[in-house]
Each structure stands twice: as C-alpha cells, then as structure tokens.
Design a protein that fits this description.
By secondary structure, the chain is mostly beta strands. It contains five helices and 13 strands. It is about 10% helix and about 35% strand.
Length: about 300
Amino acid sequence: MKVRLVCALAATLLITVLVPAGAQPASYGSEVIAGTIGEQSDSEGTRRYRAFVGNPAPAGYDHWYMWGSPYVETASPETTPVTLTGTLDLGDVRFANGEGGAVGLYEVATLAAGERTDRYAVFLYVAPRNNGTNIDVGISDGRGPSGEYVQRFVRLDATDLADATVYDVTFTVDGQADPASCASHIADIPTADGCATLTINGQTITDSYGTITTGAPEDVELDSGAHPGEYFFYADVAELREVGSGIGYQLTVEPTVIPQPTSKDDCKKGGYADYGFSNQGQCIRYVNTGEDSRT
C-alpha cells in the first residue's frame, strides 16, 4: 500500500462512537441491512439515496439523504477489511439504460459533516445494458466528474437471468491491500487507497478505490469508517421513487462498530439493552469506570 501523508484535518473528524476515558476500545460485531435500492424510506421520500444511520439521523447529517434503520457504522477499511455478504435479487429490475443503483459504503466523516458523499464512497454497482438484455454488476469508486466510475464488472446475460434471479454476493473493501495489485488502470494507483473485490455468479473481480475527484492525494477514503447505504440514479419517475429500482439486497455487514454509552442517561429507560448490557447497573458502571461486563 502506498505511503500517505496524514492530513491534519483527520484529528478533527467527527466520530459518532465515543468511548469513555479508561474504557476498552470499541468492540465489533455485524449487522444485516436489507431493502430495495431507491425505495422510499421515510416521509420525505423524494430522495434517491439511503444511508443506514438510524431514523432520524444524528445531528449534523443532512436530510438530502433518506435515512434508514438500523444505525450501522463500520470499522475503517484501513484498520480491517469491511465485507458485505449476502444476496442480490434482480428478479424485479424495472429501469432502462442509463439508470441503475448501487449498495456499499459511505464515508462517516463526510456524512457527519452534512455533505453529499457519493463521491466519497465504494459501491457494488448494478446497471442494465442493451435494453435490458444484460445487467452489469461491478465495482464503483464513487462518482467522477463525468459520471460513475466503473471499470470492472460481471455481465449477466438473458440466460443467466432466466436460470436464477437471486445471486450470492460478497463485496470486500480492503484498505490494507496494495492498489498496484488490483488497479484496472495504472493512472489510478497514485491516489488509490486499497482494493475492492466482488464475487457474483461464480466470478470474482477486483479494482482499486480511492479519491478520484477533487480530494487531495493525502486524503484516505473511508478513513473515518463507513455507513452502509445505497442509491438509485436517474429515477425521475415518481412511481419509481416510491417503489425503487427492483434491485433487492440482504447483506451482512462486518465488522461494525458497536455503539458505546457516553452518559448515564444512555443507560436509563431500557437504553442499556441497546448497547448489549444485561442491566442498567452494568451500563452505568461502564460509563463511570470503563469496566466492560459484556466481554
């Protein structure tokens, strides 16, 4: 992996999981996310983006997005590879050439700053081709100046779709991998941060990911961690904004950061259970002393 400069801004990034002084580092688990890409997820359903950051979202997260539950935050791929494993259902796809959808990882710091983050994201990307005869499933490094950045993909043809519409998928984003070992183009390597790998329909593809637009080379994409999410683009038909693209997904995301209580109030009124404690006393003890009875 290439040597990177550490931006001074990194020290000020907003981290949504706080650990009390003296506490153990945040522990990790997994979460399941599911839905139909582009499906309306709240009462403001004119948007085509969803991030699994709870509903309502934490303060600071701009409502340009549709919010989804549960709240999910992953570790940074720089620390440990982040994997989405499960199924992709293409049986009800209902969009034309030039439209499509994606599900993957949004950068925590960018979302928490209230900014649009499709340019700071790594996705499993789905798009129709040849008037629906084919569907391409590939790796997207977010959005570049002239559109989506997809260089490697698996093409499903009519025969594939006739035999099966639900596919097992594994999508891994690894910030510790050397981009030179996976980049589809040599020009991508200087600003790449790691490798993304997709397996579907018995085929595996890989490509580099990293800053591709206006970010400085020292920026490390997803360095602050990630929220899983999805988006549907070019869906200007009102009915599609309500029902979505027809691309269904059910994915286990891991490792995910287990939220930690930061005050006694977090533990009260049954809140202790949200953090995996057996009772309120254990939760408050963690806040006061950092002693973690869950491990």
